[in-house]
Task: structure prediction
Amino acid sequence: MYVKGFRNFISRGNLIDLAVAVVIGTAFTAVVTALVADLITPLIAAIAGKPNFSALTFTVHRSTFLYGSFINAALAFLIVAAVVYYLIVAPMAKVTARFQRDVEVTTRDCPECLSTIPIAATRCKYCTSPVTPVVQQPPGTPTDRRPPQGPPWPGTWGGSHRR
Result:
């Protein structure tokens, strides 16, 4: 009985996904750490003239404060956060926004209670206040996806192309 429960626990999908995420996260940490140590820190040293701040200290009543180590850790954190943001988060947000752009909207917020209701609703199912229905275009109707100014969106250029 205990073995079967353990086997079910181990074979659950989210546990395996978590294990894969930890392994990939560890490998990615090594890559980002190498990037910071081998490329960015020497760049800071070339600009600031000091590659390592760990020797910076001050003493108060025979207690030594290693504020240079804190500066090193803070810089490493900021650099790693910037690398993660600009190389992973920002590009993934653009990819997600591109896929979300083509998703048909099926819900909206009630103007009275701000609950989510179907887009074609004439009355809110939560507060029962009447709402103006939104007229939807039939699925086959072309829409103008062109921004107010500037070039047309890639989906409206015509011709055969793949997204």
Notes: Strands lie at 58-60, 63-65, 107-109, 116-118.
